[in-house]
Amino acid sequence: MINSSFTARAMAALASLSLLSFPLYAQDDAKSSSKEEGNRNVMLNASSANGPREIQIGLPSADVNVLENGLPVTYATNPHSVNTVWRGDASLSHNGLLKISETAITTGNIGYAVNSFTQLGQDGFHTNINYKMNHFGQQEFSVNLNGGMGKGWYYSANMYQDFDPGTFKIKSSQYQDRTQIYKFALTKRYDGNRGELTAMWHYANSHPAYTYATQSAPFIYSGDGGVKEYGKFKLGTTSYLPVNSDMVYVDMKDGQMKTTSLYDYIENRSNNFSLMNTYNWDNGLQLKTLVRFDHAHGALVYQTPMSLIQVAGNSQYAYKYLDAMGQEQTYNGEYVQTRMSCLNSGSINELLFTNELSKRFKTSTLRFGLNEWYYHIDYTSNTTMYDQSVPDDGSYAIRLYDSNLRSSYFYDFNKNASEFYRGHENKLAFYVTHDWNITPKLNAYYGARFEWQRLKGVNAADPYGTSNGDYARFTNYYIGATNANGFKITPTDIDYNWFNYDFTAALTYKLTDKFGFTGDFTYIVQHPKFENFSSATMPNTNKITVPLGRAGIYYNNSWLSLTSLFSYISKTNNNSTLNLQHGSEIKAAPLAFDIRTIGWTTDLVAKPFKGAEVHFLFTWQEPTYKKYETSVTFSDGYVGTINATGNKVAEIPQVLIEFDPSYMITKDIKVWTSWRYFGKTYANLNDAYYFGSHWETFGGVNWQVNKHLGLGVDVVNFLNQTGAKGTIAGSELVTKEEVQAANNYAGRLLTGSYLRPFTVEFTASLKF
Length: 768
Description:
By secondary structure, the protein is mainly β. 4% of the residues lie in helices and 55% in strands.
């Protein structure tokens, strides 16, 4: 299911990780050999209370890359999102950000990756307890206990618990996030500590309703990029979900009508077992072996706003609802919101294996790696529509039905964006890198990855490449159903073998001890992932190419580190599907589009005086659709056409600024703030709507009371900015001419997502 200008998979992506927003950090030998970037504050997230941050790149969001112990925590984030199995908690000994080139070579994915490692056992006994609460009632805590058992044996036990009601109460779930994660690791260090073998069990159970079901709200569009709140409806602190908790749907697999609740359906479970072995020889040779098997059930529920209908005074509509006594009542409100619920779920088995051999020489490090990653999934997305009230008094919405058309709340089962696929994807890859100090002034890093991608299974798509005729979705669609033409819906076989490859190279030249030149280039070739075969139309199976490069200068002295780079990135054949709406009808429009972004970024870290540190990052970028064209024909003959070629990419600003000052008042007390500026962003494909600039702000005070206890008070959105972001629901076909003709739609009620509200958080950490 894909809505607006970005995909459902993009929404699942908790962190779109940036080429243009990150410095190269290759100013000296130590940093050029590092696999990670610095100064990124990856867990300061203005969209989520417990996930990695989203950082713009000039490309649409994709699957977030989060690694733990060298392996992706989930193979694909739809339907098994990262936040359901991983948190930046006390179970981690390290949490950083992997460079683009390193991510490309070792995983075959695009962008930066959050790079984390589990806290393993150490000599003695150690305890780490982290606790966080906020003024909305969230309670989050994590515990790590680790120590030695004698004769080279060590243990580590971890528990994470999150009870998060969100920033407003919803009636359909007790919590907007209820997650529990348990890990236990047993480690044997052998052969004089040259070798380390770890077996780890990891179990997670998560109900993340907040991420995909609650992030929408009505607001009044001002016409100049700003928004105003609608009556007493407060953005970010008022629920826009109906008071009813049930959802009725038709199962794509068997055609049975079923009832569930948001909390029950969105349950994610993961039960995985890992083996990790590292051995170091005295001659600088190291061998790492990682293997993980995961048996999981993944689920996402989208409650996507579609049309916002003005019904007051319009006799065409006759909306009703049932009161608490079961009596039919007439709805007298001014607006009705239509919603499409997408109930995504899948049974998943993953077997991921990586073997890596590296050798340190006097002036270089050579590395060889092998990935064998197997992913099997049985996936469906059941879709259902319902209508709801739009209360301007801040009360809970209620479900409605138009008595002229139907007598029940739910309708159009699986008609619009239902999905199905089953089978496996296998990636066998070999990679090599060489980090070489050619001279004391010149460092080179280069590498390559060669990957065989095998994809085999079935889906419910037209094998001839169109979604018209017998393969089109219809009301009560399911595998085995018969359409109006007497055609029986049966799975379609899919079977592909592709060769993918990635190349990367970086050079750093020290002109002086303080000044030099730096640049890097990465070229990635991919093919569609299994999840791209989920909709009613086969995806474009041509290769996907991503060239990305940067070049610039750096300067270092005792108190300043500065990098300034020009950047380029593009991507071809982005497979996507839009849900285009005309009247009350929704049609899925598949397409493959291209994007190009050029930019310039300057990054500096300064320590102007004792105790003070400032990080500043400025980015200018111009993300543009180079090819974005599609159309669908609706039942009344109207042709909905999209031609966004040459338009600025929706949701991605041209100007980004980060400003992170901090000061140590004493050796134990630190005050800090983080300011992020996002320039004007377009809110639909035709660049008809836009949102003005806004700040995302964080700040806090941290006090290390003694060597055991640390306390903190953090504030999210301390400027208390309210407003909208992302895209406008149901606006895909709206053009600039329509908006201008209607006086820029000033004063019109619209629906979209919003900024995270002012939040005060209290943290405590106890270590001994």
